[in-house]
Design brief:
The chain is mainly α and 816 residues long. Among the domains are: 261-292 and 312-328 and 346-429 and 436-651 and 658-701, no CATH class; 702-733, no CATH class; 744-792. Helix content is 67%, strand content 2%. It contains 26 helices and six strands. The protein has helices at 29-50, 61-64, 85-93, 98-103, 107-126, 155-167, 171-180, 185-194, 199-208, 212-239, 243-288, 304-307, 351-381, 390-397, 406-430, 436-474, 487-507, 515-548, 554-592, 602-618, 626-648, 661-686, 705-717, 723-732, 736-802, 807-815; strands at 8-10, 74-75, 81-82, 145-147, 326-327, 349-350. Strands 1-4 form a two-stranded antiparallel ribbon. Helix 18 (515-548) packs parallel to helix 20 (602-618) and helix 19 (554-592) packs antiparallel against helix 20 (602-618).
Length: 816
């Protein structure tokens, strides 16, 4: 191996540069560049006076001979040029690292650099500022001679100088300086031990000052608080759900499979946030003041776990159990709107108003959280700027040196290896061109597959609509026929399970080059299927069932129908996970005569999560405890999916980086799912007449009229609360605030887009500026090197002329 370059400090001044003592200090960057310009002008003027012409370095290499060969620029370990003494002296004073990275840095160079930095720190702390000192008294690295000879001063001497300077710093400055040095941990420990002041000096300092005990007490308190913070931080990480499981999944199966489990974790947080206000302001209050029972409760038969009816009907599970009275008050006779008149001596709780406002506020909080999560995901996935150099960052900066346990190091090793596979696969996909004929053929296949998928979706929609109409005509909702209520959810779940398998078989014909595009296409097809089916079900519930269940509580029926769909979807998901993936693995192993496992279906599983969450949002108004059922479902689903993934699935055969998958999942959850559920609930609140025999809105024309009744009560209460009816009249009922909020939202989106564009332009300009600065400094260094070489050649030429024998001139004279 070639020996690395060692920069050596030579204390005596160089006699070649008489103006070095008047040069400015290298701490001022602008003056350093001025010194560049002055040095180039002086050398160029000297060359012009001598009458030398500018020649290329390669043309004059042979004229120097052996005497000047030791002054020529050599090649370093990897072909990098080794510059002369004067050039290296300029390099040492330059504030930029652009050229230093190209010349290579040894350990001695690093120590020399940090020696200069510690000198500057110590002088800054203990001496007046440089601008207050005369120019001749300022320290400058140009007063030292930088040689390439390692025999002048060894590395130990430079390390000794660094240790001495570190001893002159404070403890905080010394620790900060050692922490920033690009050295190994063993070398940093050695420098830390050597830079500690001697014991005698520490004792003398303790005798002369009374701050030693206070300093030790302060350091002990700081260390104890730091350790306590680390313990609390590790405890918080341990409290994070599935922390180790998610790391293991990401290390073995990559970021694409990990995105599904992260999305499941996000849904769990959304449902928890939605359930808390419902429990606090609706369920708990009604459970504390239960209404009078209307009859004997039916016995539990076990089928209620699937149908949601029976003994569950008259509980806080469904809408019909909640009263329309003002709680905590004896109800006399219902007045306008069926509201009870509160008597003095208690705190009234208007249950209809609380029900309506709690559901609205819970949905508003969910909307804000969704928008914030989506914007944050966009900021993390689509960062402004390029991703060049991400391979080097992954290789050299991904390892966590604080890992001490064997299993943690193995997990981190697998994670880094999977990341490198994804990055390399992403780079290879960008380099694969496709011919025009191949593109036309693939386009024709894509069109045919899309027609087949859309036809399958249309057939499924017609099947759901036909079966729902048949159920309305032939069934009667009664306790004796609870099993017949499972027919429609069973058909819907069968179609939701079978159609994605058909889509997956048809996707084999497409042969997408990019696995990311393949997943996006599968998500789009499954999403169209589920949106169409849910749209037909919503029409079935609010358009058909409301008319057929006039004398019954149709809100309870809709809530039970959503409960049945959720339960059947969970059962079919378990069957597909436990049996489908296992059978698929056994078939693939038998067919290929080797250990072949199926891949994890990201598109189908993600759409199942979005479908289940949509059912939860649709049923919040009719079943306030439906988010609790969704939480239990997600918890079971995580462990079942993780177990099946480890046992029955393998990592993707074509690894790909899921950098934008989380953003796509949150976007699909926000716009088709949450927006559709919000439209459904707004239509039910504003347009559909509630049941007249159950629920908190039983005597009103619409659920929204509960707010109007409350406003009329406030108008009669007195002038002290007259501003609340005004707010309701002009801000809630009026359409102007909606247009104003829409305009503000569009303005904010436009401003954010312009800010992002401005940031991209600024980043491009800064990159161009950095590139130009590096090129300018390379040009200056090359010009300095050429001037120095011409100077050496002229000196060698004058030396040869001076030592030329006089016989040559005598022979020329005799010849004339």
């Amino acid at each position: 191996m070639s020996r690395s370059l060692a920069f050596v400090l030579n204390v005596p001044e160089t006699p070649q540069d008489p103006e070095d003592s008047q040069e400015p200090s290298p701490y001022d960057e602008s003056e350093v560049h001025d010194s560049f310009h002055q040095l180039i002008q002086e050398q160029s003027r000297w060359v012009a006076e001598e009458g030398l012409e500018l020649q290329h370095r390669a043309l004059g290499a042979g004229a120097l001979g052996a005497s000047g060969s030791d002054r020529q620029a050599l090649l370093g370990p990897e072909g990098a040029p080794v510059y002369s003494t004067a050039t290296l002296r300029i390099l040492a004073s330059m504030p930029s690292r652009t050229i230093a990275a190209s010349t290579g840095r040894s350990r001695g160079a690093i120590i020399s650099q940090y020696y200069s930095r510690t000198v500057r720190l110590r002088r800054r702390a203990g001496r007046p500022q440089l601008r207050d000192v005369g120019r001749s008294a300022r320290p400058s690295l140009r007063l030292y001679d930088l040689e390439l000879d390692p025999a002048v001063l060894e590395e130990d001497e430079k390390q000794g100088l660094l240790v001495k300077e570190l001893q002159g710093l404070t403890v905080a400055q010394r620790d900060h300086m050692l922490r920033g040095m690009p050295l190994s941990l063993a070398e940093k420990r050695c420098l830390r031990v050597e830079s500690r002041p001697p014991r005698g000096k520490r004792r003398a300092r303790g005798r002369h000052g009374l701050l030693s005990c206070c300093s030790r007490l302060r350091d002990s308190c700081i260390l104890a608080s730091h350790n306590l913070g680390l313990v609390l931080l590790s405890g918080l990480q341990a409290l994070m759900p599935w922390h180790y499981a998610l790391k293991r999944i990401g290390g073995q199966f990559g970021s694409s499979v990990l995105s599904y489990f992260l999305f499941l974790k996000t849904l769990l947080a959304f449902n928890t946030l939605l359930l808390l206000p419902l429990l606090a302001f609706i369920v708990a209050v009604q459970a504390a003041f239960p209404p009078a029972p209307s009859g004997s409760a039916p016995a539990f038969r076990g089928l209620e776990l699937l149908t949601g009816g029976g003994c569950f009907t008259h509980t806080v599970m469904y809408y019909g159990y909640y009263s329309n009275a003002t709680l905590n008050q004896p109800c006399a006779s219902p007045l306008d709107g069926g509201q009870c008149t509160p008597e003095a001596g208690g705190l009234p709780y208007n249950m209809p108003l609380a029900y309506l406002f709690t559901v609205g506020v819970a949905f508003f909080i969910t909307c804000i959280t969704l928008v914030y999560s989506m914007s944050r995901s966009f900021g993390e996935s689509y960062r402004v700027g390029s991703t060049s150099g991400v391979h080097a960052i992954t290789v050299f900066c991904s390892w966590d040196y604080k890992v001490t346990q064997k299993w943690a190091s193995r997990l981190q090793h697998d994670n880094i290896r999977t990341q490198l596979k994804e990055l390399l696969a992403e780079g290879q996909l960008r380099q694969r061109p496709r011919r025009a004929c191949g593109r036309l053929q693939q386009g024709a296949v894509l069109g045919l597959v899309w027609l087949l998928c859309l036809g399958t979706t249309l057939v499924c929609a017609l099947a759901v609509y036909t079966f729902s109409e048949l159920v309305i005509q032939q069934s009667r909702v009664s306790a004796e026929r609870d099993g017949a209520l499972l027919a429609l959810p069973l058909v819907v779940c069968l179609l939701n399970l079978g159609a994605p398998y058909l889509f997956r078989v048809l996707a084999v014909l497409e042969r997408h080059d990019s696995p990311v595009l393949e997943v996006y296409v599968a998500i789009c097809r499954n999403l169209i299927l589920k949106v169409v089916i849910l749209g037909i079900l919503c029409y079935h519930w609010l358009g058909r069932r409301v008319g057929t269940l006039k004398d019954q509580c149709w809100e309870d029926f809709v809530g039970q129908e959503l409960y049945r769909l959720m339960v059947m979807d969970f059962i079919f998901t378990l069957l597909d996970t436990l049996l489908g993936e296992l059978v698929w693995r056994l078939i693939s192993e038998k067919r290929s005569q080797r250990k072949g496992k199926p891949e994890f279906d990201i598109a189908g599983n993600v759409l199942e999560l979005i479908y289940g969450q949509t059912l939860t949002w649709l049923g919040v108004l009719f079943s306030p405890l439906l988010p609790a059922m969704q939480i239990i479902k997600l918890l079971f689903l995580f462990y079942v999916k993780k177990t099946s993934l480890m046992a029955n699935c393998q990592a993707p055969r074509r690894p790909w980086k899921a950098s934008h998958m989380s953003t796509v999942f949150i976007s699909l959850l926000c716009f088709p799912s949450f927006l559709g559920a919000a439209v459904f609930l707004c239509y039910a609140i504003w347009q559909v007449k509630p049941s007249s025999i159950c629920g908190p809105f039983r005597t009103l024309d619409t659920m929204y009229e509960a707010g109007k009744v409350w406003v009329r009560h406030l108008e009669k209460a007195g002038p002290g609360v007259s501003w609340l009816p005004w707010i309701h009249r002009y801000l809630v009922e009026s359409a102007f605030p909606i247009y104003l909020a829409s305009a503000l939202l569009l303005a904010v989106i436009y401003l954010n887009i312009q800010v992002v564009k401005g940031q991209r332009k600024v980043i491009c300009l800064l990159k161009e500026q950095l590139s130009n600065e590096g090129e300018d400094k390379i040009f200056l260094i090359n010009k300095l090197q050429r001037i120095y070489e011409r100077k050496e050649r002229s000196r060698v030429g004058r030396t040869e002329e001076a030592v030329m024998p006089p016989a040559v001139f005598t022979d020329d004279w005799d010849a004339q």
